[in-house]
User: What shape does this take?
Amino acid sequence: MAIAGNLLPANAESVEADGSAWVSLANSGTPTRAPGGTLGDYCLRWVTTASGDTQLGLAARVAVTPGAEYWACSSVYPPAAGASSRIEIRWYTSGGSLISTTQGPPVPAPSATWHQVGAYGAAPATAATANVVLRATATAAAQSWYADRIFLGVPFRVAGNLLSFNAESIEVDRSGWGASSNCTLGVTSSAYSYYQAMTLTSSAAGACLARSLLDEAPSVTPGTEYYASVQVSPGTAALTFSVQIRWRDAGGTEIQTDATTVTPPTGQWTRATVIATAPAGATTARVGLAPTATAAGQTWALDRLVLAPTSAANIAGNLLDYATADIEVDVSGWTVTAGVGSQTRDYVFSGGYSLKAVADGTGDMVIGITQPVTTITPQLGYVFTPCILRTPGVTRSYLTRMEWMNSTGDVIRTRWQSWGGASGTWLAGPAGDLAPDGAVSVRLSIVVPDAPAGEAWYVDRVHFGIGGLTVRAVPIDGAGAAAITVRGLSTGGPGWKWTLLRLVAGQPDRPVRGWSGDLVAQPVGGDIVVAEDYEAPLGTSVMWRVKLWNPSGPGALTYVSDALALPAETLDVWLVDPALPARSTHATVQTLPDWQTSAKQGVNEVRGRRAPVVISDVRQSRTGTLALVTHTSDERDDLWWVLASGNPLLLKWPPGWSEADVYISVGEVTEAHLTEYAEVHDRAWTLALTEIDRPIGGLVGSASRTWQTVLDSGDSWAAVLDAAETWLDVYTG
Assistant: This one.
């Protein structure tokens, strides 16, 4: 199987076909394929023609990116112990001229066995291609050398690591590290990542110390939080091991050391992490590795060594600190009620540890952060996403909870989200909420209802930040309607759909009308949607629910907005064109309609029977006459404009009138003068109404559209008019 990220062709990497991917550059015969190796069934063989430097290169150079850092490595089998070999990366221009060479160190073979050589460097600014060159020092003619698992590519790096790739992974040598006291350093092929790791061997019983060298003492910023970590595998005993950040001032003096001590078990790799804030006066930092030996000759293998700002390891935008979010040092950021919490390696989603909570059976187990998050802005949406694993076989649902608190610490609102899903696997459920007015902090927790004693739950990689699925509704001034902003629609994933519903107590849920029809089973086209609801009742508590779901599999999210009561006049009704909401107005009621209904009936008198046989169809919709009053010429003109289209209208009553909002068709209309005096603008209206079903279709335009909106919609009047066929199109958008 090809090595991921290798720029070399497969036959150059593992020589499974023949040796044609390589050519002799100096002091060797033609490269050939030989049985054995470290990758596949064959390896590369070349035979020296004389003693001295022997070189082998790629038959065809590979393309590289200027400025990018590349790593080359190979397994090499020498003819004898002590024989020296190395690898090079030679950089070339697009015209084929050699620019420079990145050389790996010569590596004397510890014995006649496979070992690694490596080189690491950045491609020059004018580089277009590169050649990988294997070099060895032959002590005689006809010596056979072997190579396999040959690689050139951009290596994986821990995000934000301030140490070099070689200091991080020891793939070239251990030159980034020095033994400070009571130890020696070496290299081993038993690695956590890639092919090599560093070894630390105690010289005697007592404290040992190795440090990154001055070339690996990167700059730091006082007040910024950093972490240092290392993967540790003890070779002889489970002894204490400390990882340190050793802060240095501008003069090179170590002014403070922060450390975390662990006792890693033998026979496995364990991550040790220290998190600390750079103190005042710190300009650089070194990483310290400090095991405590009980005898000479005790060994620790060390790999994946990191010094980085915690912002690089934490989830982008996370308002939880890295120590709380990833549980890499301890569980001090968490409390567990009705259970016991501990740091564990049993199941890990990110880093080296997770939080394990074991219920004691005394009630609902609550796993919560110790300190509430205080960087809260009211009416901003936030999302809480803990990664949760239930012990295999446990199918109990759990809850994520956000408790919003005011400046005195009182809880002013609690938002819950219930989650199910499979057991024995990590689940990440993003629960969103709008911070309510008055909120200054939030307390986050995971609640396991009625957890029986001994049941174990795991938490890792916890995120809380701006975002999430939320709905916010606000009144549209002077329109008798609500503007609804839905955010977080991209929370689900590709192919998900969403629906927006209006919730009114005592009524069935109703869909909100959108620009192309009801907002039901809509494809997700972006993260944010703004809708305008002109059919919401007046003066009544209304909420809006968004549902986001996966139509092709499991997964669903919902969110319900805060309640909103739209402003209502005491004596005025609204006449709203549901499809063309710009045609909407309100007027004072003079007389309520006396509703009438009729039924088609056939009355059949049967001989010999006292009562007739009546055959009836369904009762027809209501009809009635509504009397209105307008007081100004503008009110009169607005009412005529609404009625002029002949479109179906929605009649919205003030609350408490014992009248349900109704869709109507307006028939005959009478505008009457209240007095004979011409300068009196008051008019009395009678509207013949027929109740109809809710009309279908989407919205056209918006009642909140103004001339400023038109002005902002194009660079010039020509652009505005080009986009419209009529002035009505300009008006409605």
